[in-house]
Write a structure and sequence with these properties.
Helix 3 (56-69) runs antiparallel to helix 4. By secondary structure, the protein is an alpha+beta fold. The two termini are 21 Å apart. It is built from 4 helices and 4 strands, in the order βαβαααββ. The protein has a 4-stranded antiparallel β-sheet. It is elongated, with a radius of gyration of 16 Å. The chain has helices at residues 22-27, 42-47, 56-69, 75-89, and strands spanning 5-16, 29-39, 93-103, 113-121. The protein has a single domain (5-121), classed as 2-Layer Sandwich (GTP Cyclohydrolase I, domain 2).
C-alpha cells in the first residue's frame, strides 16, 4: 500500500517588496503563501519525534526570509524560489506545491487577488 503524507502551511501572510512596477518594489505589499509538502512521516508519527519529520516552524521561517528579505519582479519567481529552497533544505520532501497570492495586484479590474502555483517533484 502506497503511503502519502502531507504537511501544509496555509495562508502565511508576509509583507514583501515584489512586483514588476517600481512602486510595488518601493512601497511593498502583502503576500499570502500556501505550501504543501509530500513526505513520509511514518517514523515521526510512530515515535512522536520531531527529528523524524519536517519541522514546519523552520519551513515557515525559510518562507518568511525569502518573502521579506529578497525582492523579485514576479510572484512566479517567489513561488519557484520557495519550492526550490524547501527541496534543497529537506531531502525527505519528495514534492512541494507552493501558492503565492498577491491581493490588490495593479490591474484594471476588480479581483480578490492574483495567484500562481508551482508544483515541484524530485
Amino acid at each position: 500500500m502506497e503511503k502519502k503524507h502531507y504537511i501544509r502551511l496555509k495562508n502565511a501572510v508576509f509583507y514583501g517588496y515584489h512586483g514588476n512596477h517600481r512602486e510595488e518594489r518601493h512601497l511593498g505589499g502583502r503576500f499570502h503563501i500556501d505550501v504543501e509538502m509530500e513526505t513520509d512521516f511514518t517514523g515521526a508519527a510512530e515515535h512522536d519525534d520531531l527529528d523524524l519529520t519536517v519541522n514546519y516552524d523552520a519551513v515557515y521561517n525559510l518562507i518568511q526570509d525569502i518573502v521579506t528579505q529578497e525582492a523579485f519582479k514576479l510572484i512566479e519567481k517567489v513561488a519557484k524560489r520557495i519550492a526550490d529552497s524547501i527541496l534543497d533544505t529537506y531531502p525527505t520532501v519528495s514534492g512541494v506545491s507552493v501558492r503565492v497570492r498577491k491581493p490588490g495586484a495593479p490591474i484594471k479590474g476588480v479581483i480578490d487577488y492574483v495567484e500562481v502555483e508551482v508544483d515541484e517533484r524530485r
